[in-house]
Design brief:
Layout (H helix, E strand, L loop, with lengths): L8 H11 L2 H13 L4 E2 H8 L3 H13 L3 E6 L2 E6 L1 H12 L7 H13 L3
Antiparallel strand pairs: 1-3, 2-3
Length: 117
């Protein structure tokens, strides 16, 4: 998978900040597991046991960071993880890794390959 654009440091900070809270991280992981079809907001709230107003704020933070996207379908809003965004974040974090010592990064690469969808 070739990523369209490199991630800036400020975008990386925004994304890491958005994920740096227990409920938002759980929400993001739920959407990652849901796959490309995503989930309606009501299902997300029920799965996480989060009140609608709290969920709305969390969805907004993740959306503003570019990690998720909401699309209206009838009366529902379906939220989906933005896989390319998280891929860019991982590449940003790992791009200068290891000073050429590939054995350090090998576990990360093996994990990514063994858990691919």
């Amino acid at each position: 998978m070739e990523l369209k654009t490199a991630l800036s440091q400020s975008a990386a900070l925004s994304q890491l900040s958005a994920l740096a809270q227990e409920n938002r991280l759980a929400l993001f992981r739920l959407l990652i597991k849901a796959g490309p079809d995503g989930l309606p907001a009501g299902e997300i709230a029920a799965a996480l046991g989060v009140p609608p107003n709290t969920l709305s704020a969390q969805l907004t933070l993740l959306s503003n960071a570019g990690l998720i996207e909401g699309t209206r379908q009838g009366r529902s809003i379906i939220y989906k993880a933005q896989y390319e965004a998280i891929s860019r974040l991982i590449v940003f974090l790992m791009e200068d890794c290891c000073q050429g010592r590939s054995e350090i990064c090998a576990p990360v690469l093996e994990a990514a390959q063994s858990r691919c969808c």
